[in-house]
Amino acid sequence: MKRLTLTALLAVTLLSGCSTTEEVVPDVPPSELYATAQQALQNGSWTTAIERLETLDSRYPFGAYSEQVQLDLIYAYYKNDDLALGEATIDRFNRLNPAHEKADWVLYMRGLTRMAQDRSFMHDLFNIDRHDRDPEPARKAFHDFKRLLERYPNSRYAADAQARMVFLKNRLADYELATTDFYIRRGAWVAAINRAQLIQDEFADTHAARESLKLMAKAYEELGLETPLDNTRQLMTLNPL
User: Which residues does the UniProt record annotate as the domain Outer membrane lipoprotein BamD-like (predicted)?
Assistant: First the structure.
């Protein structure tokens, strides 16, 4: 009986220890809760800011701070690398506020969030350039920034969006170049030519487009196609690396 009692006490102790691992946000007025969230944002304490903002969002979903809380959450999620939550919050905000005065910023943040999804912790940690990884997040980010420029050409975020589009275009071109090289190494000459032509059509002003000419020439040479090979060599002369 004593052993059973000690076991039960130990279980209660362990459960009590587990229950204190997550901070419970006190029940305070929304103005005070929002003030602490803003202070955490200013200090770069993203986890604390997110806790306060999520609490506000759940306790007062239609309160005076509702729209700003969601905007702050979009930013805090991005800074904290909670990218899926950030994108979900952006979708929710757009549904509820289709013509908001900060719609350009929200679209800009969607681009940043998707651009961040294109990298990984391991790539950052070891400084690895894996341009052959799936570029779908980069492609979506490119379209977000393009849409921003089309809808809000005078936005304060337009210049930065345009600069990011240049980076993303090179990222997408490098992926296509890696795919072309993959086909070359496996002797898939026609597939390599088609991919190289895609690079030159869609990403003509990139380094990858000039690199792809070498691979295209290799494929034409292997196929014994002299005329397109000569044309490609001329293009290589006109577009040196």
Answer: 27-234
